[in-house]
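Schema walkthrough. Field components (list of strings):
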Amino acid sequence: MLVDFFLHLRAAGLPVSIRELLTLLQALQGGVIGPSLDEFYYLARASLIKEESRYDRYDQAFAQFVRGVQVRMAPLAEVPEEWFRQQLQRSFSAEDLARLEKLGWDKLMQELQQRLEEQDGAHHGGSKWIGSGGTSPFGHGGAHPEGVRIGGPSKGNRGAVKVWEARSFRDYDDQRELGTRNIQVALRRLRRFAREGGELELDLPDTIHSTARNAGYLDLKLVPPRRNRVKVLMLLDVGGTMDDHIQAVEELFSAARAQFQHLEFFYFHNCVYGQLWRSNRRRMSERFDTADVMRKYNRDHKLVFVGDATMSPYEILQPNGSIEYNNPEPGAVWLQRLTAQFPHYAWINPEPEALWPYRQSITIIQKILGGRMYPLSVDGLTRAMRRLSSAGREAAPAR
Amino acid sequence: MATAANRRFQGSDTYVAGDDLRLAVNAALTLQRPLLIKGEPGTGKTMLAEEVARALDMPLFAWHVKSTTKAQQGLYEYDAVSRLRDSQLGDARVVDIANYIVQGVLWQAFESPQPAVLLIDEIDKADIEFPNDLLRELDRMEFSVYETRQTIRARHRPLVVITSNNEKDLPDAFLRRCFFHYIRFPDREAMHAIVDVHFPRLRGELLRNALESFFAIRELPGLKKKPSTSELLDWLRLLVAEQIPAEALVSRDASIFVPPLHGALLKNEQDIALFERLVEMNRRGR
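Field assembly_structure (string):
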């Protein structure tokens, strides 16, 4: 009986292991719960599901199994709020957005929810909720499979069922392919230990040496503990084509944050020019000169670009090629300056590697960077980190 | 003698545990497997171990993990330096190496004469390999001391409660050995129950209004750090101490406003700035 349940969960894409199933069976045998479906739901969750981001998929799979019928909700068919916001920003002008803001975000979402609930059957268009906007972000083929709705069919039910029907862990579902843990493990390769701070560790060779010189009387020598002192300067491409990679880049960024104590970061758009910024909200008012950044951080920083390098070749090669402002010097010059200043550099590209040869701008940038471009995958990161840490031993250009 | 296995945790007079949490604790007690607790900061993850220990009258051994903590430190440490010093001073203790083995928290919990609760707090603070280093120890509840050729086996398998703040992902092999529970942020009803436990004599109106503003603030979009249960409790404590009347917590025109002593709820200057700006916008919009 439970084997079916187990296989059902696995079929739903939940990584449950046999060991965990045995634990669950043991718990049942041990009489942890009474004969109650509610309690079984909780017990099975505690023993099989180890990540809150998978609770939602578990809820759906459980409901499916218990009722023995297809849940009419396709997984992930609902409109994620973030996606929706982005769609809004894309499809509306600034004035429209301002008008929408006035209407109130929550009200809008409520409205949307209501509409979605009203439509029980096939779901076409459904764009009426936004009378003034016209171009609804919904109803585009495929974005909304038929019969999607929010909330399950047994809304009126009381008691136990509401727990998994409510799908309250929806927000936590993420299904990442490249977990932060994997990234962190890859980033760990980039380590440079240095002894710094208080003297806390026993220096055994030195102690033996000085004890011997001290006629056998103990002479303790201490050294500061080793710490990872690698310094990283990260330049991230934001906006435009990078929107598709937000999730992956965010993960990379948060993993890097946790891994490197000395992490400085700046943003650029498409290609690096004379100015960078630190906060996207104040990117117009608060800018940093790239030249200043190069002066401020010394050569032992490892320079990591993160960007898809996808743009028009003019944006790299021509003065005034930037789509943002008039740049007196082309991006290529700035890239060369940066890589000359920081001999340890790498470019991490979220686009799949197989695609690179077909994008002219990627080829150009790769050429400028001497081929040090790596895909944003565990393998690519590992290669990039190896490159960054080994570059130190190569002869740095003497100047 | 009562073993850990046949005890049941039912919540306590100072800790409100939902059905799911109680069940997870009891499953961990029965099967003597570690229980991994995650959840927003301030939802009582650490408190859980203390309360379970108190409710079931078991001794608590707490191991607070820091970024420099090594797995070995939880087992034991061999103090070679004092031994060397003693040998130079001709101390008699030096013959027995066991004199220089310092017990770690895990060891103490294993040696406890009665079933104990072992709390490994904020396991995600340590190095990324830390959980892997403890796999065997937590699985078999035994480890060997190399220096004395001893094997330390738990007399009673302790109830191991592990908390994590999600700063680092934990390895799969580790997760598979644990029960897992995610403490959700309590809803309105549960929050009432929690506040009742902490402030049994709070005036009804004040509490209602306070919860109202609390949840309103939590629902604001864009907050970096949403106020949590512990912040609400602190705030209520302040409100009571300052004898703020219940009326001060309602705005006249049902819009959002800055409640008194909001510094107890919002602890990030960006959040406070954002909040005040929203309130200001709201006022002008009307």
